[in-house]
């Protein structure tokens, strides 16, 4: 199973071709281009590709994990890809100043134990720090939309709380 990275945006509220025509999109540097391309190819069978993009001392954070070092990051991805049926990333915006970047994306994935195995889409942002390779990667996304809303029983409660909080 491979992840796919698609640009430009298709069927997204940001609109067709938003990536190319948005003045907030800076040209991506080589390390950021490599990072986005990595997710086109990455799967459980080729985790050594992480070596080409991430530094040995990388710190990777998301709302549920903090991982320090390339070895533990490979272990994390091995577990992740072992359990997913599919995963796909669409990048909508790239802001890159040559040392750090912000990537705005939508991840669509399928897991056999969530949402009856149907695809789930989650919007997120990645904050990236880099030199020759990525040494800091922090993902921001709604864990409820990704996980909790799709667990039988708990999902209805999370959706109810979100609905009431929005009033």
Notes on the protein architecture:
The structure is a single chain. The chain has helices spanning 18-21, 30-41, 50-53, 70-83, 143-146, 154-165; strands at 5-6, 54-62, 65-68, 86-96, 100-110, 120-130, 134-141. It has 167 residues and is α/β, with parallel strands linked by helices. It has a seven-stranded mixed sheet with strand order 1-4-5-6-7-2-3. Strand 4 and strand 5 form a beta hairpin. The longest helix is centred in the middle third of the chain and has 14 residues, at 70-83. The model is unreliable at 1-23 (pLDDT under 50).
Major β-sheet annotation: 7 strands, mixed
Name the shape in a single word: globular
Helix/strand-derived class? alpha/beta
Through-space gap between termini: 41 Å
**How much helical structure, as a percent, in the residues?**
25-40%
Summarize the structure.
The chain has 167 residues and is of the alpha/beta class.
Q: Top keywords for this entry?
A:
alpha/beta, seven-stranded mixed β-sheet, 34% strand, globular, disordered N terminus
Write the SSE topology:
Layout: E1 5-6, H1 18-21, H2 30-41, H3 50-53, E2 54-62, E3 65-68, H4 70-83, E4 86-96, E5 100-110, E6 120-130, E7 134-141, H5 143-146, H6 154-165
Parallel strand pairs: 1-4, 2-7
Antiparallel strand pairs: 2-3, 4-5, 5-6, 6-7
